[in-house]
């Protein structure tokens, strides 16, 4: 194919068209002398270049550039068609016929353009593909009428292919075709190349503009989609600027906030607004936004938005995140985004659940107290009877024999121990809502901590036959001022767990030590242990370590939650660690000698 073309500088033409042009004329770079005969109305070359320059600069889209090319070239030549092939993936071919063309003319035209593109190393260019994807751009002025016969008979007589280049980079080919032979006068080839250069710049510019426009349209489409999503969200979404003033909010946010504040102006920072209005919810919202503007994220903060005297006040959950613009030079967020959720319904369900659990727990307490009382009474009676029998045996000097009462006592102690456990569970259930609503109260009194620890051990030991419970007191005086039954509840819960989570049995030690003004109680077991990843959650409400091994243990995940609340209320602390070496867990509790903290 290449042999078909003569290459003169950046000019390519088919042999059949130019075979008759003498060699010196083919060099061509020459002169523009011919132009004055061709373009008698244009007085000088410069004026002509100026005119065509303006034409191309004024062309704002691809089709205006095509018009400019056509108009300019038609001032120089009369030809049948002009084509523009733009390099790309895929290549784009634009055909601008100046008169009706026959199918064979068209086919030949595309074939020749393909050949020229192959010479210029356009990647994978094929005539068939170009023919299928070519665009036809009709000229404004329709050429003179020709009969179908006349059209059918047309063949290509001359052809001119000029590369479209920008700074030595070939972006396409401008091709001219005519039925007549010798149409493309070599005198005008340099000028044609110049026009092609103008055209190349103009086409590159409109290409950039088209791409820019497409990107803008895509961005606009995305923006509208995002706006629609935010508008349709059932969650309220509110966006502030970097000063905390509302920039926009969706309908849900407007609806939710309208129940709190009559009017939320958009140009005043929320903190400033909160100062002028005595609305607690607004204060919390403003403070959360302020915090977020200092790069903190707030997740699911509860906001009492309604009147607290109502049975189920409007409650919102808010999450606030800073709008961090990574491209911005300033270190601070450019605003904050607030997501509001109405959680009143779930609060209502929670409250109903709480009420139900409280009622059931209260109902359970009455029979439990009776069972406890009667069990204690029976235990004492049995103990007394056994003591009397032993005393009688000692007085008669008879050898001690196994008494059926001893077996009864043993069984009664198990009943007592399990009743204590049941009582702790009921108390935990009752205390759960007290802790949640900040209603946990303590009744301080003076007692000896060692006695309480011993009593707890005795109670738990009665129904923990596989375990040996030890008490290790390492302080001379164990006098403390605290809520005795609450301390029993904490130690009882921790001992229950120590036994429950050591299914193989083993030793459980309760150690009492001194630590500054606190007692340090350690409950050490040799059980299944707790993976450290659970340490930070284990004191949360209803949190249970869940895996194949732990699923077999019964429980509700409240013991540690309530224990922590009680210990903290006393001004103490509770935490856990691995029982290194032997395995198992150590729970530590500190308890001030005398009341401190919130109490
Ligand atoms: P419950 O025992 O009713 O599940 P708790 O609040 O007392 O609830 O304990 C929470 C979770 O902590 C338990 O489910 C258990 O997985 C883990 N846990 C508590 N104490 C121990 C312990 N001594 N050894 C191993 N795991 C424990």
Task: Give your account of this protein's structure.
The protein is built from 17 helices and 19 strands. With 599 residues, the protein is of the alpha+beta class. A seven-stranded mixed β-sheet has the order 1-2-6-7-3-4-5, sandwiched between helices. Strands 9-8-12-11-10 form a five-stranded antiparallel β-sheet, sandwiched between helices. The longest helix has 52 residues, at 344-395. Residues 1-36 have low confidence and may be disordered. The structure holds adenosine-5'-diphosphate. Residues 493, 497-498, 501, 525, 527-530, 538, 543-545, 550, 555-561, 585 line the site of adenosine-5'-diphosphate. Residues 493, 497-498, 501, 525, 527-530, 538, 543-545, 550, 555-561, 585 line the site of adenosine-5'-diphosphate (ADP).
Secondary-structure-derived class:
alpha+beta
Write down the overall mean pLDDT. 86
Spatial extent as radius of gyration: 47 Å
Percent of residues in beta strands: 15-25%
The low-pLDDT segments are 1-36
Strand order within the widest beta sheet: 1-2-6-7-3-4-5
Task: Tell how many strands the DSSP assignment holds.
Answer: 19
Number of helical regions: 17
So what's the overall shape? elongated
**What ligand species are in this complex?**
adenosine-5'-diphosphate
Largest sheet: 7 strands, mixed
* Helical content band: 40-55%
From the N-terminal CA to the C-terminal CA, the straight-line distance is 99 Å
């Amino acid at each position: 194919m290449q042999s078909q073309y003569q290459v003169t500088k950046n000019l390519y033409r088919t042999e059949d068209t130019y075979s008759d042009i003498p060699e010196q004329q083919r060099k061509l770079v020459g002169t523009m002398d011919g132009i004055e005969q061709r373009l008698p109305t244009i007085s000088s070359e410069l004026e002509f270049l100026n005119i065509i320059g303006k034409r191309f600069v004024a062309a704002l889209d691809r089709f205006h550039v095509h018009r400019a090319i056509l108009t300019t070239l038609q001032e120089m030549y009369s030809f049948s068609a002009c084509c523009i092939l733009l390099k790309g993936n895929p290549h784009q071919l634009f055909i601008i016929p100046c008169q009706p063309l026959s199918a064979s003319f068209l086919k030949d035209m595309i074939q020749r353009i393909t050949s020229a593109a192959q010479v210029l190393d356009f990647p994978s260019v094929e005539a068939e593909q170009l023919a299928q994807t070519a665009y036809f751009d009709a000229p404004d002025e329709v050429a003179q009428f020709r009969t179908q016969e006349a059209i059918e008979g047309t063949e290509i007589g001359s052809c001119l292919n000029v590369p479209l280049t920008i700074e030595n980079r070939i972006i396409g080919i401008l091709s001219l075709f005519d039925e007549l032979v010798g149409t493309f006068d070599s005198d005008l080839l340099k000028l044609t190349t110049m026009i092609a250069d103008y055209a190349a710049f103009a086409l590159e510019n409109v290409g950039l503009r088209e791409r820019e426009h497409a990107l803008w349209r895509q961005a606009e489409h995305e923006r509208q989609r995002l706006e629609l999503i935010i508008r349709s969200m059932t969650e309220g979404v509110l966006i502030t600027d970097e000063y905390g003033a509302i920039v926009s909010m969706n309908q849900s946010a407007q609806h939710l906030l309208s129940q709190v504040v009559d009017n939320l102006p958009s140009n005043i920072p929320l903190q400033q607004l909160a100062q002028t209005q005595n609305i607690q919810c607004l204060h919390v919202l403003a403070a959360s936004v302020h915090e977020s503007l200092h790069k903190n994220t707030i997740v699911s903060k509860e906001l009492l938005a309604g009147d607290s005297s109502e049975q189920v006040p409007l409650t919102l959950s808010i999450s606030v995140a800073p709008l961090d613009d990574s491209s911005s030079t300033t270190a601070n967020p450019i605003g904050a985004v607030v997501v509001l959720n109405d959680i009143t319904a779930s609060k209502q369900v929670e409250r109903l659940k709480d009420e139900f659990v409280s009622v059931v727990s209260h109902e359970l307490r009455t029979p439990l107290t009776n069972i406890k009382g009667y069990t204690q009474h029976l235990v004492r009676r049995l103990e007394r009877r056994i003591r009397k029998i032993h005393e009688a045996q000692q007085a008669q000097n008879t050898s001690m024999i196994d008494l059926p009462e001893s077996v009864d006592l043993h069984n009664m102690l198990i009943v007592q121990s399990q009743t204590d456990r049941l009582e702790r569970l009921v108390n935990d259930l009752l205390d759960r809502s007290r802790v949640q609503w900040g209603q946990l109260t303590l009744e301080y009194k003076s007692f000896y901590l060692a006695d309480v620890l011993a009593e707890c051990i005795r109670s738990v030991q009665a129904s923990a036959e596989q375990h040996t419970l030890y008490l290790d007191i390492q302080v001379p005086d164990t006098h403390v001022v605290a809520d005795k039954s609450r301390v029993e509840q904490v130690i009882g819960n921790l001992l229950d767990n120590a036994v429950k989570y050591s299914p193989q049995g083993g030793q459980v030690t309760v150690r009492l030590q001194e630590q500054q003004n606190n007692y340090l109680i350690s409950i050490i077991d040799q059980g299944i242990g707790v993976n450290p990843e659970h340490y930070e959650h284990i004191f949360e409400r209803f949190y249970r370590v869940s895996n194949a091994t732990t699923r077999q243990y019964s429980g509700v995940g409240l013991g540690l939650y309530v224990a922590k609340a009680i210990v903290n209320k006393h001004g103490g602390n509770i935490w856990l660690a691995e029982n290194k070496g032997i395995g198992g867990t150590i729970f530590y509790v500190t308890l001030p000698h005398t009341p401190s903290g919130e109490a």
